[in-house]
Amino acid sequence: MCPTKTAGIFGLLGEKRQAEKGFVLVAALMAVFLLVALGVLVFTVTTQDVRISSRYIGEKKAFSAAESGISSVVQNFDPANPGASAATNVVVDAGTDPDSRYSIPAPAPPASGPAAIPASGYSIGGGEVWGLSRYVTTVSGENTRYASRLPLTVGIGHGPVEITTNYR
């Protein structure tokens, strides 16, 4: 009778070991899945930071190109020929940054608001009023390397010009 009891006890222990082997396999798979998920999370966060940084750099370069365009339109503006200030895809600095460029459509009088605004300090008496003629354009700066584009609406005042509305 003893051998049968011993065989029965070993039989129960053998079944328990088979169940433990199944549990170890499931636990190992869960640990692998957890580590893979953690790796994917770290990779996603890291690449997102890189994308945000490159977007920020691209926007700064596009803004710098737009500022260069504003400087150009202010220096070259001629109210007798507003179209002469227009420019398309002008490279800001071909040597250092060939990917930053700006475009300027021809300045035009504004669609709303007054065509001229009074300028203080230019009235010379006799009922004359002097001011600045208003023009508006949109300067677009872009950087092709970072695929960033920034349009800036710019107001240009030209004068002093006489803006008296009185009949002489």
Summarize the structure in words.
The structure is a single chain. The protein has 168 residues and is an alpha+beta fold. It has one domain. 45% of the residues lie in helices and 28% in strands. The protein contains one helix and five strands. The protein is rod-shaped, with a radius of gyration of 37 Å.
Outline of the structure:
Strands 1, 2, 3, 4 and 5 form a five-stranded antiparallel beta sheet that branches.
Number of helices: 1
Low-confidence blocks of residues: none
Classify the secondary structure makeup into a structural class.
alpha+beta
Largest sheet: 5 strands, antiparallel
- Share of helix among residues? 40-55%
Average pLDDT: 85
Number of domains: 1
Record field, number of beta strands:
5
What sequence of helices (H) and strands (E) makes up the elements? HEEEEE
* Cα Rg: 37 Å
End-to-end separation:
136 Å
Strand fraction: 25-35%
Outline = rod-shaped
